[in-house]
């Protein structure tokens, strides 16, 4: 089987908090987020045989407990993803998937087939603010965005609803970008939306620092990232609606925020 392939990180401790993983990045994505730092994987294809990735998984197997699929958007290549997830499972490894939420039916299929242990879903803005969601995924700026903002928020909402109603682990995250997304009101709106859609209070909401040196939109490359204190302040606003808040900052890693 063929896969449009980006990169493998043989041993990673950052892509799945609390686990050591081999991380496999697929190419291609239906979105064009202006801050995307993997944008080189969005256009030029590199088609290889999945057997090559299987060899990588076997090499990493003694050192990892899980395989993490990222991208790009791994659910875009559901055939290759299912094949490799099944291979990981046969080898006794857990499967995690980073997704932008655009493929709810495919997420449901993976859950039904028992091929995924954890989804990490981007909620890039509040789905209640359709226009903002469209802007964040590059709608109107890049022609290759698939779907309208209305379709995109509907699909992201369905993906979160499907995973939240399953017994698969879930992490929801938002990347904050100065001048694009990350005001107190915007983060509060996202946290309120989560509280309306998710009942399991153990599900973490992660506010992660966007880094822009390699952003797709050139004018973003000089943008100053939010620092830890600023993101902690945003966490406080999210906490008005959701208890289990984490922040992810380059120099500090993952931190669960403790509130008084
Ligand atoms: S969802 Fe956005 S940030 Fe993620 S790979 Fe696609 S374009 Fe890049």
Q: Treating each run of at least 4 consecutive H or I residues as one helix, how many helices?
A: 7
What is the second-level CATH architecture? Alpha-Beta Barrel
Beta content comes to: 15-25%
Largest pleated sheet: 10 strands, mixed
Question: What is the share of helical residues?
Answer: 25-40%
Distance between the termini: 52 Å
Global mean pLDDT = 96
CATH level-3 fold name: TIM Barrel
Describe this structure in words.
By secondary structure, this protein is α/β, with parallel strands linked by helices. It has a single domain (2-256), classed as Aldolase class I (TIM Barrel). It is built from 7 helices and 10 strands. Strand 1 (2-12) and strand 2 form a beta hairpin. Helix 3 runs parallel beside helix 5 (149-164) and helix 4 (130-136) crosses helix 5 (149-164). The termini are far apart. The model has no long low-confidence stretch (mean pLDDT 96). Iron/sulfur cluster binds at residues 29, 31-33, 36, 38, 71-73, 100.
Describe the structure concisely.
The protein is of the alpha/beta class and 260 residues long. It has seven helices and ten strands.
Which structural traits does this protein have?
260 residues, alpha/beta, TIM Barrel, ten-stranded mixed sheet, 7 helices, binds iron/sulfur cluster
Write the layout of secondary structure elements.
Elements: E1 2-12, E2 21-26, E3 47-49, H1 50-60, E4 66-70, H2 78-90, E5 94-99, H3 104-112, E6 118-122, H4 130-136, H5 149-164, E7 169-176, H6 184-197, E8 205-209, H7 228-238, E9 245-249, E10 253-256
Parallel strand pairs: 2-4, 4-5, 5-6, 6-7, 7-8, 8-9
Antiparallel strand pairs: 1-2, 1-3, 9-10
Helix pairs in contact: 1-2, 3-5, 4-5, 6-7
This protein binds iron/sulfur cluster.
């Amino acid at each position: 089987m063929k896969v449009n392939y980006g990169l493998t990180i043989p041993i990673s401790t950052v892509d799945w908090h609390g686990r050591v993983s081999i991380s496999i990045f697929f190419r291609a994505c239906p979105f064009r987020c202006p801050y995307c730092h993997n944008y080189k994987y969005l256009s030029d294809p590199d088609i290889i045989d999945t057997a090559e990735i299987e060899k990588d998984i076997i090499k990493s197997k003694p050192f990892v407990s899980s395989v993490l699929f990222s991208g790009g958007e791994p659910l875009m290549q559901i055939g290759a993803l299912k094949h490799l997830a099944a291979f990981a499972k046969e080898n006794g490894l857990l499967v995690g998937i980073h997704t932008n939420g655009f493929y709810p039916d495919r997420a449901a299929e993976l859950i039904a087939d028992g091929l995924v242990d954890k989804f990490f879903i981007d909620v890039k803005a509040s789905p209640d603010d359709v226009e903002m969601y469209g802007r964040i995924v590059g709608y109107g700026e890049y022609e290759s965005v698939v779907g309208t903002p209305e379709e995109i928020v509907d699909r992201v909402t369905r993906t979160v609803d499907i995973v939240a109603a399953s017994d698969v682990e879930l992490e929801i995250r938002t990347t904050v970008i100065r001048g694009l997304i990350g005001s107190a009101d915007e983060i509060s709106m996202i946290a309120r939306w989560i509280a309306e859609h998710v009942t399991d209070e153990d599900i973490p909401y992660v506010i992660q620092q966007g880094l822009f040196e390699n952003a797709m939109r050139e004018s973003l490359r000089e943008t100053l990232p939010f620092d830890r204190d600023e993101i902690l302040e945003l966490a406080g606003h999210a906490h008005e609606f959701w208890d289990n808040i984490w922040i992810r900052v380059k120099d500090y890693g993952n931190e669960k925020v403790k509130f008084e």
